[in-house]
Design a protein that fits this description.
Layout (H helix, E strand, L loop, with lengths): L2 H4 L1 H13 L3 H13 L3 E6 L7 E4 L1 H7 L3 H4 L15 H12 L3 E8 L5 E12 L5 E10 L1 H41 L3 E5 L5 E4 L1 H7 L3 H4 L4 H4 L6 H13 L4 E7 L7 E9 L8 E8 L7
Antiparallel strand pairs: 1-2, 1-5, 3-4, 4-5, 6-7, 6-10, 8-9, 9-10
Helix pairs in contact: 2-3
Bound molecules: flavin mononucleotide.
């Protein structure tokens, strides 16, 4: 390669004079801009065999570690080393063949063999007849961004694995808990932090003549028609939940169509790995007056 061909000023002069002859001063500005940008810039000549590089700026030399004299005359694929089974390369070939712009992310290799991620944008340059004579390539080293992306993906993987395990654990705990509730002889109800019913056992439904639709997601004190001590009961439930103050056999007057008097006990149930606390409520009725 002749020495003067490696000189970008000479090169740009030679190829762009026709376009820029009216603006010789601006041309220098353009040439300086290409040299001062942090992005790699290459120009390839599509009229020559294998579309070789005919110009590169300093940033491209810095990014790749290759000096200009080892770059000019080569096809840009030399940066891929043996890593040529990359899917974006097919996209590049297609867009070069069609003469359309493209942006891809590629694995490239420095002169010393270390990998770097190259965000590459390629744009065609057409002559007055519409024929693609050159391509301009802009390269940015995005290795840091890619490393962070990879680390983030690894973290997401770890977290979703943990979450999946936790979901299985919660399901198991739920099954055990619900199994115990089903077989218990007392009326048992689980309340959430708003004192709404999350689960009730068959004994509860049977004794109070209620169906799941009447009960689930409803406020407990509204369901069992507490007469005079609803406020006290709500306060005791809240204390049991928030202040870890369980209570036993609190006497409750109920409406006559349910049972005359009930004894209510409540315990907070906090489960490892489950954020919310729940309240396990046990009800014993002294007299049941079932609706026919
Ligand atoms: C202007 C221009 C710049 C390019 N820059 C790079 C580059 O920085 N790194 C790279 O791996 N490939 C680059 N390529 C792509 C390769 O030159 C080549 O087109 C690609 O490897 C697909 O063709 P192939 O399958 O014949 O190798 C560039 C292509 C053009 C036209």
């Amino acid at each position: 390669m002749a020495k003067e061909i490696m000189d970008f000023r000479y090169l740009l002069n030679k190829q762009l004079t026709s376009v820029l002859h009216a603006l010789p001063e601006d041309f220098n500005v353009l040439a300086m801009a290409l040299e001062s940008t942090n992005s790699g810039v290459v120009i390839t000549d599509n009229r020559l065999d294998d579309n070789p590089i005919i110009f590169c700026n300093h940033a491209f030399e810095n990014m790749t570690g290759y000096p200009r004299e080892e770059i000019i005359g080569k096809n840009c694929r030399f940066l891929q080393g043996n890593d040529q089974a990359q899917q974006p390369l097919t996209l590049i070939s297609d867009s070069i063949a069609k003469g359309v712009p493209i942006t891809v992310e590629l694995r490239n290799y420095h002169r010393n063999g270390t990998l770097f991620w190259n965000e590459l944008s390629i744009a065609p340059v057409r002559n007055s007849e519409g024929k693609v004579t050159h391509f301009i390539g802009i390269q940015n080293d995005i290795t840091q961004k890619k490393t962070m992306e990879t680390e983030l993906m690894e973290q997401i993987d770890i977290l979703s694995n943990r979450l999946a395990k936790q979901e299985i654990y919660i399901k198991n705990v739920e099954e055990v808990l619900f199994g115990i509730m089903e077989s218990a002889r007392e009326c048992l109800v689980i309340l959430d932090k708003n004192l709404h019913v999350v689960k009730a056992n068959p004994n509860f439904y049977e004794l109070f003549q209620l169906s799941p639709e009447d009960v689930l997601d409803k406020k407990f004190t509204a369901i069992i028609s507490v007469y005079d001590n609803e406020t006290t009961l709500s306060k005791m439930f809240n204390d049991a939940l928030n202040k870890a103050l369980p209570f036993n056999d609190f006497r409750l007057n109920l409406s006559k169509d349910q049972c005359d008097e009930a004894r209510v006990s409540a315990n907070k149930i906090g489960l490892v790995g489950i954020k919310d606390d729940y309240l396990l409520v046990k009800i014993r009725c002294n007299y049941i007056n079932k609706i026919a």
